[in-house]
Amino acid sequence: METMDDFFEHMIQDIYSAEKQALESMPQLVKRVQSDQLRQALQVHQRESESQVTRLEQIAKQLGIDPDGEICMAMQGLIEEAQDLLDQLEDGPLADAAIIGAAQKMEHYEIASYGTARTLALQTGQEKVADLLETTLKEEKAADEKLTFIATHSVNQKAAQE
Ligand code: ZN
Ligand code: FE
Ligand code: FE
Ligand code: FE
What we know:
The protein is mainly α. The protein has 5 helices and no strands. Helix 1 (4-30) runs parallel beside helix 3. The radius of gyration is 17 Å and the shape is elongated. Residues 45, 49, 107, 110, 140, 143 line the site of one fe (iii) ion (FE). Zinc ion is lined by residues 18-19, 22, 49, 110.
């Protein structure tokens, strides 16, 4: 890696790997969920994530790069940690609270990644790429806020009563 272009290519490949790992892990999280509201939120974001993968493929095409080639170790770790945690919990409000926490850690990683990539794209004059990244960034932020809402208005209260 020597130039800004190399670094940017690395970032796109990393987040592409992160998205695909997150998508793959989602059914395992969803099947442990008890709250209908939480299940629905995760399923909506799963569909959004499929569009996000497509957006990254569009970006890669525009830049003439291969989106594959990197494994996001951070997302791998977040998923592993979520699975370890869920292995220690019975299904119910407490597991729901843990799933929200795990999902929000994944969202925050994505928010940091897309925010950085969007800003670099803007500052290097790649406006179309920056727009695509910004669209995804907004979805990630909205997903994170929705999870906070579900936690504070419903799941955490039930978990505290256990
Ligand atoms: Zn993602
Ligand atoms: Fe995403
Ligand atoms: Fe990464
Ligand atoms: Fe996300």
